[in-house]
Amino acid sequence: MQLKRYLSLSEILIIAFLLALTSLVVLPFLYMFAVSFSSPSESMAGNFYVWPQVWNDDAYRYLFSSTRFVLAIWNTVKLTAMGTVINLILSVTLSYALSKKFLPGRRGMMMLIFFTMLFGGGLIPTYLLVKWLGLVNSLWALILPGATNAFTVMVMKTFFQGLPESLDEAARIDGAGELKILLHVVIPLSMPIIATFSLFFMVSHWNEFFGAIIYLNDTSKWPIQPLLRQMVLVGSSNISAEAAIDEQLAATLGANVKMAAILIAMAPIVAVYPFLQKYFAKGALVGSVKE
Amino acid sequence: MNTAVRRTKFSKYLPFYLLAAPGMIYFILFHYVPIWGIILAFQDYSPYLGVFKSEWIGFENFIHFFNLPDFKVLLNNTLILSLCSIALYFPFTVLLSLLLNELRSVLFKRIVQSVFYLPHFVSWVIIAGITLIFFGPSGVITHSLEEMIGRTVPFMMSEAWFRPLIIFQSIWRDAGWGTIIFLAALAGINPEIYEAGKMDGAGRLRSMWHITLPGIKSTIIILLLIRLGHALDSNFQQVFLMSNNLNIGVSDVFDLYVYRVGLQQGSFSFGVAVGLFKSIVSLVLVLGANRLAKWFGEDGIF
Fold it and tell me: How far is A150 from chain B (nearest CA, A)?
């Protein structure tokens, strides 16, 4: 009787439907978690379960003792840290300068940046440029071509323009230089937008895959995603030349190792997710800001 | 005196030009220099001769491409894939937003949203991996289905299942994320309209149809047009990871073709020509979508 006052039939239906959909997202991860911790014989049976009968951490031991895997994680950490810092420095400095309406040439620079959203040289000219710059086979090939982007600069510029100008003037009267104002006044006030974009940058570096495939011939420099593809997927996707060699590697790995590798690769994102979640909605919404 | 004024003015601007310099150099180097590379499309480029000495062949690369049987296949595959994705992704995302909007428990709503946003941050490699774990030849779903119907369904090894899987992946990954913008639009609807509707005897469904949907109509139109403007852009990583020799007939899209023929087989000039064709058509589509948005009485995308 009590319940009836709060929930109508339509509401119960809606809740049931949404719960079904959430389980569609959650169950695959729970299944992978369970398989990663169970013995190979259990996962070989091919049944769906979300709780292992016998807990077994062989998969994780194997991965953390594998030089190749640990090296790939380390490369990813390096790439993510360096890449995100460079993204932030370039995006903030450029959009802060462009937020100053008195700056001559500002409109021209904005147009130049905006145009890159509409048209570009494409994959091959970019590849040839990276090669010509001598960046092939270095982590810089994954960082520099995407050091910032038009969308970020435009959103940040709009945000900086919204900050009160009086603060700026007060700091200037106190004798602060432009760099000091940016570092000590503007950036502390802009933490929500900086956090949002940091998250987007971090995730995209952590998930970097295609750049590694085309620019890094030396697989010891690979970040985690391309290695993960070899461990989990290759054999089903034999479009590329290196596939045939690594089909053997993929075949020898047990299901528990594959799923443990996936979960380890996801762990950092899941770990930062709760802390940054409050910024997501905001971030996605600034995404819809029109110029 | 004039020079003094000019000097103080310049010293006022200088710090900002210095701040802008690295970013502007980036845009010119990594976005405008590659545009210059487009001239390769009109050459028979040889890496040994370089851009300046390679032979000019005019539009030969383009004519060759348009006459290839591949051209029609690529156009078909690309368009069918993106139009089907749009046609299924949009209604589903709108429906999801409407349902979330009906929830009164803030806590439950927040939990559901957190779960729905998460897949957006999962890499395509992992999503393809999960797909293989469930739909692969020895996957859980394939396995249980086999026990039920007595034969194996080749989800990842056939042309028939490629498009459904890609669309399912897109919805699984991004439908939750897509609700953010609709929920914001929904929050902007004046609650008094609902009160008025209730007074006139409108139930939940009726007010959804007559108040909520019209309230987010312009958001839907704008987003739809943006997506249509990008109809030729496939989600490269997704298609790349899901394509294999057995489904290449339906999975070969422009982006994949440029990678395969241009980079892997080393036909640089031809690859640039294909890429350029795609970029120009995309540019026209985006500008057209913007026009159309304005014609619908919306603000337009830019």
Answer: 9
